[in-house]
Amino acid sequence: MSRYQNILVVIDAQQDDQPALRRAVYLNQRIGGKIKAYLPVYDFSYEMTTLLSPDERTSMRQGVISQRTEWIRQQAHAYIEAGVEIEIKVVWHNRPYEAIIHEVLQNNHDLVLKMAHQHDRLEAVIFTPTDWHLLRKCPCPVWMVKDQPWPQGGKALVAVNLASEEPHHNALNQKLIQETSVLAEMVNHTEVHLVGAYPITPINIAIELPDFDPSVYNDAIRGQHLVAMKALRQKFGIGEEFTHVAKGLPEEVIPDLASHLDAGVVVLGTIGRTGLSAAFLGNTAEQVIDHLRCDLLAIKPDDFVSPVTLPAQDE
Known about the structure:
Distance between the termini: 27 Å
Oligomer: single chain
Number of helices: 11
Pfam family, one: Usp
Shape: elongated
Strand content: 15-25%
Function: Required for resistance to DNA-damaging agents.
InterPro entries: UspA (IPR006016)
Order of helices and strands: EHEHHHEHEEHEEHEHHEHEHE
Protein name: Universal stress protein E
Family: Belongs to the universal stress protein A family.
Largest sheet: 11 strands, mixed
Structural class: alpha/beta
């Protein structure tokens, strides 16, 4: 049984075309499983109708939900006619990201797909506040789908952290590669590439230490990263030609390589933390995401716990 057998697709209420649903069907036809098309809706004006009775307001809300349910059914009509099983669910909720995460928790969804809008002038992907909340807080992987066709022969680029000696980074690197490799094998034998970035020489060190040799420092850092990358690729049987170690900031190296390879998706890990910091992705991941021009698959560590929990009455 492979992963991604219980997919939650977040429907975009602002447009008729649904790239996330299209991508979900594409995955479903190759790996099986089930799809739920999900839309949280809310209109503050309905809550302001104080002249109406509670029953009338409830009836109006239900009318909106029924109308949107039928609209989604029309969006999915061609897929359903083709035999794809798609469950449709519309809920009334004023915080979309909370509604989505509640649905994930209640029904053990193992992948969320949501459309990411593209900025026409820059070709960069634009993330909404809901997108950011999901990337930071959703317990299962989140796939942000760019609203344009998958590139011909599109590759999967896995961003790995080669600099840290902390055990959780190594475990997350291995999880990213393993999950991407399994999925890629089932989906058109997609090529999987690994990328790691190493820092340039800190200018202040070069200035403050006259005997400091930047080239020796660069060679040493690059060597450490190459050794770490070799260990990773050998563990998973990935050819050297599919691994990339480059000098520079991750938020520059990773998007540039993704563009060069014409990658369909960049896979990266978002570090989970406990307590108040659990809501944050980490600066590096956020900056990388902000510069991407392709699909993004964000995966949490095994020990990640979402800061969003089910309401008491739903537990």
